[in-house]
Amino acid sequence: MGRPFVLPDLGEGLTEAEVVAVLVHEGDVIAEDAPLLAVETDKAQVEIPSPIGGRVETIHVAPGQTVQVGAVLVTFADAAAAGAAAPAPSAPRPAPSRPVEPGPARAGGAVPATPATRRLGRELGIDLRAVQGTGRGGRVTDDDVRSAAGAGARGSAPAASAAAPPRARPAKPLSRAGAELPPLPRFEQWGPVERAPLSHLRRTIAERMALSASVVPHVTHFDRADITELDALVRGNLDAARARGVPLTLTSFLLKAAALALAAHPQFNASLDDAAGELILKRYYHLGIAVATDRGLIVPVIRDVDRKPLLEVARELAGLAQRVRDGKAALDDLRGGTFTVTNIGALGGTGAIPIINYPEVAILAVARAREEAVVRDGRIVVRLLLPLTLTFDHRVADGADGARFAAEIVRLLEHPDQLRLEL
Amino acid sequence: MVMGDLVREVDVVVVGGGPGGYSAAFRCAELGLETVVVDAGKRLGGACLYEGCIPSKALLHVAAVVHEVERARDIGLSYGEPKISLPQLRAWMDDRVVTKLARGLAGVARSRGVEVIGGRAVFEDSRGLRVEGDEPQKIRFKHAVIATGSLPAGLPGFPDAGARVMDSTGALALPDVPERLLVVGGGYIGLELGTVYAALGSQVTLVEMTDGLLPGVDRDLVQPLARRIDKLFAAVHLKTRVTAMREVGARVEAEIEGHGAQSFDRALVAVGRRAQSAGLGLEATRVHVDARGVIPVDDRCKTSDPHIYAVGDVTGEPMLAHRAMRQGKVAAEVIGGRPAAFDNAAVPAVVFTDPEVAWCGLTEREAKQSNQPVKVARFSWAASGRAATLGRSDGLTKLIVDHDSGRVLGVGVVGPGAGELIAEGTLAVETAALVEDLAATIHAHPTLAESFMEAAQSLLIEPLH
User: Fold this and answer.
1) Which of A214, A348, B210, B309 is the least buried, fewest Cβ under 10 Å from its Cβ?
2) What confidence score (pLDDT) does residue A13 get?
């Protein structure tokens, strides 16, 4: 009797994945956690480890195939390992904790909708009582729920199913604006064209960026940090760090500075639950770092940057970037971010205005640092200046908030002794 | 090692192996959570399987056969007087019904890797409990689901259930067929068990405190049953109290208001059930328990302790197994991080008497009390072809419909098979169906289910001028 292994719940609303490679053969005996398949999801290419050790009896999928969560990928011959019968589930997320009003369980159900539609509402975080039903007899339909959730809510929806923090007071949903795109002209009339299908990743980036740009009112703040001293610090410690196997980079200092500044400006380490009309403040600082790969942009996440020594951040950053470029990142490397940093310095330019990585509310871009002539105490001196661009969600914070937050990052970069380096 | 030091760590511990408990446990296991059940009897099924729904329905089936045979005389078919072998009946009920189903549940538990631990669970804090009894141990859990159910309620100032004064559990053990049986309480338990004993040959006297049987249910649904009960039972006393009751030798002496002292062979006290939350050590947790012992929960089946859920009878009315099962699944899915909620619009209620009475959603009485504008459609089974062929034209199907939208808000059925028929009504209410949906759905002919279509159609007819 075989043990089926199904595509596990990938989290974050991912319902399917494309098989990129099958890394085992039928008949192989593999160890627990050995890489089984490489799949590409809406988020990235990831390797799926084997939940158990044993002999691979049958492989049910082939490269290029798109599989749904719950589909059987591989069947193992009956393994000796006890307790391996069930596929490894994703870690159970904490259940919602709402205050309990004493009183009997409410039979509820005043909303005219089928149970399946009501479930959809919960998945999308939509309170059906606030939705006008367009079905006959006022029935709330799936379409009503989806349009209430906004056209692009597909990818980001399951936030509703994770921990719902206690609410201080009742809140109500914001209204949403959306626009239908007009049809494209026939470009062929002006010359030959070619159509290339978007890759999974490209499509995801397209959808997420369009969602962010259309839903979030972006505002951008510019600043510059004098990193002459920081640069000297980095250079002065390069060898010592390398001796410990860590490539020290400016980016790790940026991450550290951003995390510390976020702690002082929590509204930038947040998400807006517009269906509930609430700001969700995250009490953890998991920073995403934009990594360019030959397949497209991927944003792996370093957890608890505020609490980690700088060398540890640098070490993780190097390992993570490599895994991402090799297409070997685990799904957990790619989710849970609260703020994103993108460093385009290596590619030149004098500055860039990034788009927020929704549902985060702010993103920091830095361009190449340049030596410039600066007036100090009435004299012209040469200093190394780093252009910073902070883009944030104007629904959540105002220009003055953004200026203060950026100034805090600048201050920390200009006073590296305050970065709590623990090199 | 001292036994008490054994600490087991699990994702989910379910306290109580009844329908709410095993539904929660099975779903948790499906979601990949390591789950154990602590049950005092080290078995799954609970009161429902061992001393409630299942055995009572087995006995009601016997009663239905007896009554069917009696009715057959009117259409020219007679078998003579029934001979009832109690030992054989008990053996059938125990072996072929209860034990068979219990084996099935145990098999499901095995196949899903859900271990059932025998003993009494006592919470020590919000993340741990100890099991007292044959398998003493400590369990640390990430989540707990309390599913300890309910117990038959006694009457204050009356003797506890004993040899002759029985509660529903005692009555289902079928100790004998008493010549005279007093039933205290005209709710569904008193009516169902009274019907069983009457069919087996007892003279049943029913005493109900309120002015009608099945308090709270629409009177037009109760009426056909009340007429039948009047014939079946020796006496039905409404708006009447039993003021005193005691066991004297092999008799039960009862003082019945307005009817003097009467002597019975046995008495059944069926005045409801009460939540069973005592002795669980909940004071060591943050679980709130109300004065009646009920544990209030929200629509995620969460108690006021973030790690502890509760499902089923222990969370209060309606104390019905199928509600508990749905709650159990909801609790499991919430624990598993899924967006589940107990937001059902309709919890069907069924009284398995003859005729059966079933209803769900809004009742006509509730609509009146809350001044909710509704239209009510009634279809009498006197006009049903299928009812005529069964010799049972005493049924009624009714729909309670939102006045403006035509949405079906409540459904009631009385008649043979009402317990099965109500499923269509429940689906209609749960899915917010319109009367037109029912009227336009083809129902097989001739069936009793056609009565839904007919009732719905009656609301769609334009009034004639």
Assistant:
1) A348
2) 59
Residue B161 has a pLDDT of: 65
- List, in order, residues 6 or more apart from B157 with CB less than 8 Å away: none
Which pLDDT band, with edges at 50, 70 and 90, does A136 fall under? Answer: confident
DSSP string, A137-182: GGPPPHHHHHHHH-TTTTTTGGGGGS--PPPSS---PPP----PPP
A95 touches chain B (CB under 8 A): yes
A164, two tokens: 């719902």
- Nearest-CA distance A160 → chain B (Å): 7
Nearest to B121 by CA among B265, B1, B14: B14
As a whole number, the mean pLDDT across chain B is 93
Structure ipTM: 0.79
Domain of residue B9, CATH code: 3.50.50.60
Task: Specify whether B307 is catalytic.
Answer: no
CA A403 to chain B, closest CA, distance in angstroms equals 38
B131 & B16 share domain? yes
> Closest chain A residue to B301 measured between Cα atoms?
A105
Q: Which domains does chain A have, with CATH numbers?
A: 3-76 (2.40.50.100), 115-158 (4.10.320.10), 218-419 (3.30.559.10)
Q: Is residue B170 part of a domain?
A: yes
Q: Is the pTM of this model over 0.80?
A: no
Say if residue B280 is in the same domain as residue B399.
no
Host domain of residue B324: 3-152+274-335
How does pLDDT run across B216-246, given as a tens digit for each residue?
999 999 999 999 999 999 999 999 999 999 8
pLDDT per residue over A407-421, tens digit each? 999 999 999 887 766
